[in-house]
Amino acid sequence: MSTLSLTVLGAGTPYPRPDNACSGYLLRTEQSAVWVDAGPGSLANLQRHVSPDQLSAIWISHLHADHFADLASAYYALAFSELRPRHRIPVYAPIGWGGRLEAFLTNSQVAAMSAVFEEHELHDGHQVEIADLRLTSRAVHHGIPAFGLRAEHNGRVLAYSGDTGPCAALDELASGADVLLCEADADEETEVHCTPEDAGEAARKAGVKQLLITHVGPAMTPEFAAGRAAKVFGGRTVAVAENEIHELR
Ligand SMILES: [Zn+2]
User: Fold this and answer.
1) Model confidence over 216-232: pLDDT tens digits?
2) How far is the centre of ligand 1, averaged over its atoms, from the C-alpha of 62 (Å)?
3) A single Gene Ontology molecular function, please (predicted)?
């Protein structure tokens, strides 16, 4: 049976630790492999599951380093190693991402960037079909241009919050989803991150089947945050860890 799967490449923040990379996920179907968020450490874990030159696309929620910095590492992998992608890899990311990455590179490297990456900028409501996977991006509240994601395949739906405070776009992305993968960075209420209770409330309002808690800030353990979220959601809630694979059947 055709399935959509989520592989966790990293769920940590604000910096990568041994066995705890920053935000990174792999969405897979029979015909697609999309790297979602490129937090530091996630590229190394990605290679446990797929070679970077085999990616269908890369999608980045926002340009904070704990979601974006390994795109520079991916450039090095694709431009300077034995990996030779047969096609440019489409990158979908917030406005200005290309310039941000170019600023990190030297002049001679900038020319090569367009040889490995196909540049796309996200906007609210952006939609793209990547083989048998549909990705819809919505602008969310994080103090900088930032997006949440709704991934749909064969009747299965995974919603990903990116980083965001509670907002209507998050509720809409998650509406009726099989899985809501939601950050719970904040121990106390803030406009730019979800608390565990915010994540639980978003899952409850959206009527999702399962809540996966990720990107838990240093004030809490992931398990503690998942427990707080579960009390509000009332449904199945777990904290994710890297290299787990969650199948949406
Ligand atoms: Zn952020």
Assistant:
1) 999 999 999 999 999 99
2) 7
3) 3'-tRNA processing endoribonuclease activity
